[in-house]
Amino acid sequence: MKRLELRDISKSFGALEVLAGISLHVAAGEFVSILGPSGAGKSTLFQLLTGALKGEGDMRFDGAPLDGSPFAFMPQRDALMPWRRVIDNVTLGLEVQGVSRRAAREQVAPLFAEFGLAGFERSWPAELSGGMRQRAALLRTVVQQRDMLLLDEPFGALDALTRAAMQRWLEGMWRRHRWTALLITHDVREAVYLSDRIYLMSARPARIISEIAVPLQRPRTTGSDAARQAAALEADILDTLLNPGVDRASFPQTAQRRSS
Amino acid sequence: MAFAIAKTIPAAIAFALILAAWEVYARYGGVAPTMLPAPSRVLLQAWENRAALAENTLPTIRATSAGFACSLVAAFVLSALVDFLAPLRRALFPLLIVSQTLPLVAIAPLIVLWFGFGLMPKILLVALVTFFPMMVALVEGFAATSTEISQMLAAMGAGRWRIFWLARLPSALPYFFAGLRISITYAVVGAIFAEYAGAAKGLGIYMLNAKNNFRPDLVLAAVAVSAALTLILFGIAVLVQRLAMPWENAGSDSDDRKRSGESRQ
Ligand SMILES: Nc1ncnc2c1ncn2[C@@H]1O[C@H](COP(=O)(O)OP(=O)(O)O)[C@@H](O)[C@H]1O
Ligand SMILES: [Mg+2]
Fold first, then answer.
1. Which intervals hold domain ABC transporter (chain A) (predicted)?
2. For residue B172, which residues of chain A lie inside 8 Å, CB to CB?
3. Residue B215 needs a FRET pair 20 to 30 A away by CA distance; which of A73, B47, B194, B247 works?
4. CB contact at 8 A, A188 and A167
5. Which pLDDT score is estimated for B264?
6. What is the DSSP letter of A126?
7. Where do the domains of chain A lie?
């Protein structure tokens, strides 16, 4: 069943055409990634979804036109408020929904252990490591109990080792909770490791140049067979992103380029 | 804490050296005490006239705090309004900048002429000199709110007022306190200026009378009192900032630890 469905979404900033007809969908309980180069317009797409910007095109959620926000949104960079303690950052969404601070704290406190943040409830965000900040930001996102998660490059600012650890952790969390999630990333390995399906996005003006199902079994262990399969998929994706003109005749944009 | 005290030692030494040089010059340089009294004489006279000084210090404190409180409230209210209504900003800022170009020497007697010898003209003058730095700091601080945080709050369903309260106001706090520290050093001077232009009691009028009676030692004693007042207000501002922004030193502590760890190796 399709939860989110976007048809032909376009957005320009004045003369700058950023999104040029994006169509995609996300099914219930599915983890989908949008993979594209920096500056393509990925964050802009999320801003259209959360209503921060207005664009053209059809956005549907559970079959009805998108109305209000069924999304819990995790912005690029963690966006933790330095003036709130970690627990008060995590309860932010609940507070905005009208839950009292006390009740919100009671609701989120049991989740700190699962997110590897036990004992840091009363810390300031500045006292956390990069990985912990991202986990806190993710916890703040999921406790809102919305129908779908929008994650904008959650691990983009982390060092390679921490990022790999966080990807494993997130994959495990996702298997347990089966959130419906749309992830933005420019990291090919991250997209392959986490997703059920991947949309490849071109550089600006952004189009979807390919849709790729990831047939790897979960949990995404590092067994040599699975690793080979994943590596082949990653190589294929890189090829598509770096030479969009080669042997992808089924996509109109590339077909055009060829004929020119 | 010991480190914080250690940091003030150079300033204390410099201050003591200047006082010592002044003392030596005033005593042995052949200047009359009616021209340049030695610091020791200023101190002695201040002590002997302590009743009169205290009596004139209280009204100055009252005028300073009333004026500063008004200025603070006005800065918060107006900056919030400007934050919500962009056109208001374009209307107000030129006026505010012009208000900062007015020469106090000319304005102070006029305000006394219009509002009399009471508290009102002092409040107005203190507000005039302290309002601008706080107002500018607050408006800039609101604008410095991270767009990610605002967008996230909007996606959570927060309205404009909620976003202001949860994100823009706390984001502006560091800016506000920077402005406050500048403002507060003008506040006492503003009150003294107003009193100088006309008052029944106060440090400003006390200085004027002492000068007219050829008592530079008493003028300087009043100056010392006003400097002490300003320093105390500054200290209070720093203290309030510490209390209002407990997160400010979080994380930097561990940096210090890291650094000292490195230097030990
Ligand atoms: N509010 C805006 N006004 C004008 N241009 C914008 C705005 N937001 C984004 N852009 C431009 O749109 C392009 C895509 O930005 P973004 O969606 O942030 O890219 P990505 O997230 O894929 O790296 C960039 O060239 C950026 O400069
Ligand atoms: Mg982005």
1. 4-228
2. none
3. B194
4. no
5. 33
6. G
7. 2-70+148-259, 81-146
Work out the pLDDT band at B260, boundaries 50, 70, 90: very low
Residue A58's H or E segment, with its range, is strand A56-61
* Mean local confidence (pLDDT), B97-102: 86
Instruction: Give me the mean pLDDT over the B59-66 stretch.
Output: 94
> Tell me, what's the pLDDT at B92?
86
**Position B251 pLDDT exceeds 80:** no
Q: Are B75 and B131 in contact (CB under 8 A)?
A: yes
Q: From the CB of A22, is ligand 1 less than 6 Å away?
A: no
pLDDT at A61 over 50: yes
Residue A200's DSSP bridge partners are A35, A210
Domain A2-70+148-259's class? Answer: alpha beta
Q: Is the pLDDT of residue A198 over 60?
A: yes
Q: Which atom of ligand 1 is nearest to the CA of A14?
A: 4
- What would the pLDDT profile of A79-128 be if each residue is shown by its tens digit? 999 999 999 999 999 999 999 999 999 999 999 988 889 999 999 999 99
Please tell me if residue A47 touches chain B, with a CB cutoff of 8 Å. yes
- Quick one: what percent of chain A has pLDDT higher than 90? 48
> Rounded to an integer, what distance in angstroms lies between the CA atom of residue A259 and that of residue A35?
26
CB atoms within 10 A of CB B258: 10
| Residues contacting residue B116 through CB under 8 Å, at least 6 positions apart | none
The ranges assigned to domains in chain B are 39-246
- List, in order, residues 6 or more apart from B162 with CB less than 8 Å away: A96, B153
Question: For residue A4, what are the β-bridge partners?
Answer: A26, A61
Q: What are the tens digits of pLDDT across the range A9-21?
A: 999 999 999 999 8
Which of A13, A35, A183 most suits a substitution to test ligand 1, by most atoms within 8 Å of the C-beta?
A: A13
Q: Report the CATH architecture of B39-246.
A: Orthogonal Bundle (1.10)
Who among B155, B167, B247 is closest to A124 (CB)? B247
Cβ distance of B156 and A81 shorter than 8 Å: no
- Residues of A with CB below 8 A from B157's CB? 68-69, 96-97
Cα A248-A254-A260 angle, rounded to 5 deg = 130
Q: Report the gap between the CA of A4 and the closest CA in chain B (Å).
A: 16
Report yes or no: A43 and A76 within 8 Å, Cβ to Cβ: yes
Here the tokens at position A85 are: 């303690």
- Alpha carbon A163 to its chain centroid, in Å, reads 14
Spatial neighbors of B177 by CB under 8 A, at least 6 apart, are B237, B240, B241, B244, B245
From the list B216, B213, B197, the residue with the least C-alpha distance to B205 is B197
Region B15-35: mean pLDDT is 89
Residue with tokens 């952790």: A169
- What DSSP state is assigned to residue A212? E
The 8-class DSSP code of residue A125 comes to G
Q: B150: nearest CA in chain A?
A: A79
At residue B2, the pLDDT reads: 65
Q: What is the pLDDT of residue B218?
A: 93
Taking the C-alpha atoms of residue B220 and residue B212, their distance in angstroms, rounded to an integer, is: 13
